[in-house]
Amino acid sequence: MSVGYKSIQWNRQKLIYDLILWASVAAYIALFMAVTKSIGSNLDLRGVQIRAYGSAAFLLLHVILSIGPLSRLSPKFHPLLFNRRHMGVTMFFLALIHVVGLDLPVLPLKATGALTWYHDFGNLDPLVSLFVGNSHYGDFIQFPFEILGVGALAILFVMAATSHDFWLVNLTAPIWKALHMGVYVAYGLLVGHVVLGALQSNRHPAMAVAVGVGLVWIVGLHLLAGSREIKRDKATLSPSDDGFVDVGTVAEIPDNRAKVVTISGERVAVFKYDGKISAVSNVCQHQNGPLGEGKVIDGCITCPWHGYQYLPDCGASPPPFSERIPTFDVRLAGDRIFVRAIPHAPGTPVEPAII
């Protein structure tokens, strides 16, 4: 959403992100092929292409899974959230090319896929051969790693197909988010796909080290971000007899910014703007983004994740949008800010406290 709260598709900023993304992918594939060919001149170009696209998708998945926890650890990574969906769709197409190949007559782009490279030499259809060619399901080392890759590709397809606000609205935010949490299942399947597949035929330790480092990075980053969130939630504030909570001083909050506090187990964003104080739920209705890490732009609280906006004194989105968040009563006693622990219904107007 833009500052004026109009739906946007591609703007200049997104085009720059996408051009950087696609140029980086193209450079990686070209570098991968050049380095691989220099190591072994007798390698078949088609096999190298399969590994290039597959590794590009796997590497991009690590980048995508890193953006969320990095954004929780530092707001400097918030801009990457705006382009994360485009990264996900790009990753899916790289994985699809890895499996089925690429042949665009109108462009000088052509690549062999693993499906035909490994399963098109017998009497069976390649797709049939994929599922019946290896039946060692009871053997860990010889387990059909191809099935793990197909399962991950199916999950990535569903995510890419629903990576649009149309599906977010029609599926509702909780269902849409739960559906897209499947990316972690896909990641686990792909780790198994690589470990039981490429690592079995690749004798160089660098690849095994890279996969291990990637796994430790993703797990460690999520644990670090999660521990920080848990620590913040444990510092919950309890109301006094009148139902209000002392959340700090006016001077602690920068202009047009917020202080996030946990009151009775719920995160509340206390904003200072235009000489006033208002408190709203910290959870954006779009994708549960942290509103308190955003700022007030043109009189609206603007979510740092995707730009959704809310009026601070009523928690309602500017017309014609209908998103609403809970609001809280606020009062000042000198320089101290007090917030009522019990929220109002989403979209309820509340008189701001005047500084």
Topology:
Blueprint: H1 12-39, H2 45-73, H3 78-81, H4 84-100, E1 101-104, E2 109-112, H5 114-119, H6 126-132, H7 145-161, H8 165-171, H9 173-180, H10 182-196, H11 198-201, H12 205-234, E3 236-237, E4 244-249, E5 257-263, E6 266-273, E7 276-281, E8 295-297, E9 300-302, E10 309-310, E11 327-328, E12 330-333, E13 336-340, E14 353-354
Parallel strand pairs: 3-5
Antiparallel strand pairs: 1-2, 4-13, 5-6, 6-7, 7-11, 7-14, 8-9, 9-10, 12-13
Helix pairs in contact: 1-2, 2-4, 2-12, 4-7, 7-10, 8-9
Throw out a few tags for this protein.
2 domains; disordered N terminus; alpha+beta; 14 strands; 48% helix; Rieske Iron-sulfur Protein; 3-stranded antiparallel sheet; elongated; 6-stranded mixed sheet; 355 residues
What does this structure look like?
The chain is of the alpha+beta class. The chain folds into two domains: 12-233; 244-354, Rieske [2Fe-2S] iron-sulphur domain (Rieske Iron-sulfur Protein), CATH 2.102.10.10. It has twelve helices and 14 strands. It has helices spanning 12-39, 45-73, 78-81, 84-100, 114-119, 126-132, 145-161, 165-171, 173-180, 182-196, 198-201, 205-234; strands at residues 101-104, 109-112, 236-237, 244-249, 257-263, 266-273, 276-281, 295-297, 300-302, 309-310, 327-328, 330-333, 336-340, 353-354. Strands 3, 5, 6, 7, 11 and 14 form a six-stranded mixed β-sheet that branches. It has a three-stranded antiparallel β-sheet with strand order 4-13-12, with no helix packed on it. A three-stranded antiparallel β-sheet has the order 8-9-10, with no helix packed on it. Helix 1 crosses helix 2, helix 2 (45-73) runs antiparallel to helix 4 (84-100) and helix 8 (165-171) packs across helix 9. The longest helix has 30 residues, at 205-234. The two termini are 30 Å apart.
